[in-house]
Design brief:
alpha+beta, Alpha-D-Glucose-1,6-Bisphosphate, Chain A, domain 4, 3 helices, globular
Length: 144
């Protein structure tokens, strides 16, 4: 099985990247309830009538790493609602010379899953457009 993994690099500092990742309302979407600023925090992300997931922050290493555990999930377009439940979403931040790399992984999101095509395309858009835009310009392009 292959987890969904991608990465990108920006000129900003690890702190700027870390702060942007934790600003989920700006790069993922505004329909977020709850907090995600401390280990143990839980938050819910929603795209009305399409996707709802509840996540817990399980690791935060300032300027280095963010890890979320998916506690519950519902997608209107798949039969098996458990595909995301128990999976882990990770952001690893690594300074390489003048750039900061973000290594993103959705561990447990496999190509065999019914949602994989839609979800991998969505993550690709978020990780290669919305989040980098938030980091570099201050404006993300999350789902509404």
């Amino acid at each position: 099985m292959n987890d969904y993994i991608t990465s990108f690099a920006v000129d900003q500092t690890p702190k700027e990247v870390f702060d942007a990742i934790n600003n989920v309302r700006e790069w993922w979407g505004p329909n977020v309830e709850g907090d995600n600023t401390a280990v143990g925090d839980e938050f819910t992300y929603r795209v009305p009538d399409i996707h709802t997931c509840k996540l817990r922050v399980v690791e935060l290493v300032p300027n280095e790493k963010v890890v979320w555990l998916v506690l519950d999930n519902h997608m209107s377009f798949v039969e098996d609602q458990s595909e995301w439940t128990g999976t882990t979403i990770t952001f690893e931040i690594d300074r390489k010379g003048a750039q900061t790399a973000v290594h993103f992984a959705h561990l447990g999101l496999f190509p065999e899953h019914e949602c994989y095509d839609v979800c991998s395309n969505a993550w690709g858009s978020l990780m290669h457009h919305s989040l980098p835009s938030l980091i570099t310009t201050g404006v993300g392009h999350g789902y509404k």
